[in-house]
Structures are given as C-alpha cells and as structure tokens.
Amino acid sequence: MSYDHQPFLRRHIRVVPDFPKPGIQFYDISTLLAHAGAWRTAIHAMAREVETFVPDTLVAIESRGFIFAAPIAVELGLGMVMVRKRGKLPGNVHSHAYTLEYGDDVVEVSADLIERGQKVVLIDDLLATGGTAAAAITLLKAAGVETLGSVFLMELIGLGGAARVGVPCRTVLQVPA
Ligand code: AMP
Questions:
Q1: Ligand 1 centroid vs 156 CA: distance in angstroms?
Q2: How far is CA 34 from the centre of its chain?
Q3: What is the pLDDT of residue 100?
C-alpha cells in the first residue's frame, strides 16, 4: 500500500514536554486511542508489519504493549502472551533480572503459556533505548523461544534502540527523542 499513514497518525499522538520528569518528551498514545480512525489505522499498519514475520504467537510488553497486541492478535488470528513486571503473573514463571538507566527490574512470563521452539513477534508502543524489549527477548530466549522480530508504533530516533534489541525492528512512526 503506498498511502503514507505517518502524518495522520502523528497528528493524533500528543507530545507532553517534561513528563514524567524534566527533559523527557512523552509521546502520549491516549489521544490516538480516543480517535477511532487513527486507532484503527495504527492497528492495521502494525498488523501488516507483524504478518511479514509469520509468528506462532505474539508477545506483548507491559503495559501499553498489551493495548496494541490484543487487537493485532485478533486481526491476525493469533494468540498473545504477556510479559509482565515481577509478581503480577500467577503460577510458574520464567524470570529475567535486568538493569536500565534508572535501576534494576525483573520481567516475567508464564511458563505454561510458552513452548520451547516457539517463534514469536514482540509488541510494544514505543522503542526508545531498546532496553525493555532486549530484556523481554533475553527472557524468551532463556525459555527456548525465538523472537523473529519486534513491532512498535513509534521509534525515538537517534537512541540506537533497534541495534540494542538485536532482532529486526519494524516501526510505523519515527519521532524525535
Ligand atoms: P526503552 O526500554 O528505553 O526502549 O523504553 C521503552 C519503554 O518505555 C516503552 O514501553 C515505552 O512505553 C516507554 N517509553 C520510553 N520513552 C518514552 C517516551 N518518550 N514517551 C512515551 N513512552 C516512553
């Protein structure tokens, strides 16, 4: 499809300066979600990227990744599995501790919802430094799951996020950091 969605989608994402702290330009997807046409366009555009990888299932990163992955999974007839922060998932989990700029964190995935040898695509709203996505991919790899690629609505350009993620990254919108 040759139509360029970028200007339309970009108009529906609110940029909030100095949130949640000074110096951060926060890209707020609330305004996109509130607009039926922009929301639908965003999901279709991300689904087109996801389907090129032909995954077995989707993996969504807490919390805004859930919002995007759920309708994409339904559109493509796929299931989705949640990667969550420590302590949120019941039952047996695989865990991975990692360090980001502002401290340590732990991500988890339900052990009985993934299988060794499965091929997945990772979904989140925004790619910045790539640390969050890289942690999820490491967690999945340790559980024997292959991440074929990752799909984001937005990428903050110039932060080297895609290189850090280490799997093919597809983004619908590229925006300044
Ligand atoms: P990173 O691990 O640096 O790639 O950060 C990506 C995660 O942080 C995503 O889950 C985003 O939702 C969130 N995030 C990082 N920077 C921003 C930003 N400028 N605006 C909105 N969300 C952000």
A1: 9
A2: 19
A3: 80
Residue 114: give the domain boundaries. 52-176
> What is the C-alpha separation between 146 and 163, in angstroms, rounded?
17
How many angstroms is it from 177 CA to the middle of ligand 1? 10
Which residues of the chain are modeled with pLDDT < 50? 1-2
Domain containing 56 — which CATH number?
3.40.50.2020
Tell whether ligand 1 has an atom less than 6 A from the beta carbon of residue 129. yes
**Structural domain contains residue 2:** no
H helices of 13-156, in order, are 30-33, 36-51, 64-76, 131-142
**Tally of domains in the chain:** 1
Contact 131, 97 (CB under 8 A): no
Ligand 1 pocket, 127 CB below 6 A?
yes
Residue 146 lies in a domain: yes
Rounded to whole angstroms, the Cα distance separating 57 from 70 reads 11
Nearest to 138 by CA among 170, 99, 87: 99
Place of tokens 């639908």: 40
The residues, any chain, with a CB within 8 Å of residue 25's CB and separated by 6 or more, are: 15, 16, 17, 176, 177
Q: Is the residue at 108 inside a domain?
A: yes
Tell me, yes or no, whether 120 lies in a domain: yes
